[in-house]
Amino acid sequence: MVLYFTGATNILYTFGGHAVTVEIMHAMWKPQKFKLIYLMATLYVLTLTLPSAASMYWAFGDMLLDHSNAFSLLPRSGFRDTAVILMLIHQFITFGFACTPLYFVWEKLIGIHETKSMFKRALARLPVVIPIWFLAIIFPFFGPINSTVGSLLVSFTVYIIPAMAHMITFAPAAARENAVERPPSFLGGWAGLYSVNCFVVVWVLVVGFGFGGWASMLNFIQQVDTFGLFTKCYQCPPRH
Predict the structure, then answer these.
(1) pLDDT in tens, 2-37
(2) Which tens digits make up the pLDDT trace of 136-180?
(3) What is residue 68's three-state secondary structure?
(4) What is the pTM of this model?
(5) How far is the first Cα of the chain from the last one, in angstroms, to the nearest whole number?
(6) Is 205:132 a contact under the CB 8 Å cutoff?
(7) In Å, how far are 86, 143, 210, 213, 224 from 206, measured between CA atoms?
(8) What does the alpha-carbon distance between residue 173 and residue 216 come to, in Å, rounded to a whole number?
(9) C-alpha gyration radius of the chain
(10) Which residues of 223-233 are buried (b: 16+ CB within 10 A; e: fewer)?
(11) Which phi and psi angles does 67 have, rounded to 5°?
(12) Measured at the alpha carbon of residue 142, what is the angle toward residues 107 and 26, in degrees to the nearest 5?
């Protein structure tokens, strides 16, 4: 049960974390193109993230249960080193756009959100960047930690809150009549769309947040002794 629901939350996090809804929309210059960008992000997950993850689980499934550092399981080769470099580039890009909303809030808080100087903005963002980098170096943010974050946070930010916000926004008849985009006919109009939204909210709340949160927390507690602070090689298999 624990492994099943931990896996379910990992799948939720894969789609919710790699096709991050709020961050992409907030960072876009032209939010009206969000649908196309989100479709591309979902295709990225389906064609790159899921196949590579499935391949690793197929090859090292049992070992990955308590050794989440997949790179440490791969044999040393140029392909492994290339994969590590590409992952580092990916992490820098992800950090950049995922923190964009936080940058905007911080800049407005200290009163420089209207400045045109990129240098001043870069300096102002250091108090946000440095603590996050420091925490990322201290703690390994993948494996059991990712499962826990996925179940407790991503469940709400990517699935539950957007679906509920859409339902609340278009609850009045006037809002539905003046909607710029109407639900597609194959969904059954507004009634069909509301049914889909309700299903997403209930299913993610029960499976993702409820059972997934329980399983992820239990898995996290069982493996917490393997984390360590500033670990040289997080959850690496012992060398013989």
Answers:
(1) 878 877 777 777 766 655 555 566 666 677 777 777
(2) 777 766 677 777 777 887 788 778 888 899 899 999 988 888 888
(3) coil
(4) 0.69
(5) 32
(6) no
(7) 35, 22, 5, 9, 25
(8) 41
(9) 20
(10) beebbeeeeee
(11) -135, 80
(12) 30
**Considering Cα of 194, then 199, then 202, then 205, what sign does the dihedral take?**
negative
Q: What Å distances lie between residue 119 and 99, 108, 112, 131, CA to CA?
A: 18, 16, 12, 20
CA dist list (Å): 214 to 86, 139, 155, 198, 208: 33, 21, 13, 22, 9
* Region label for 188, one of left (φ > 0), alpha (ψ between -120 and 50) or beta (otherwise): left
Contacts of 86 (CB under 8 A, 6+ apart): none
The structure tokens listed for 162 are 């957007």
Question: Tokens 């006037």 belong to which residue?
Answer: 174
The conformation of residue 156, written as its DSSP 8-state character, comes to: I
Structure tokens at 56: 């690793």
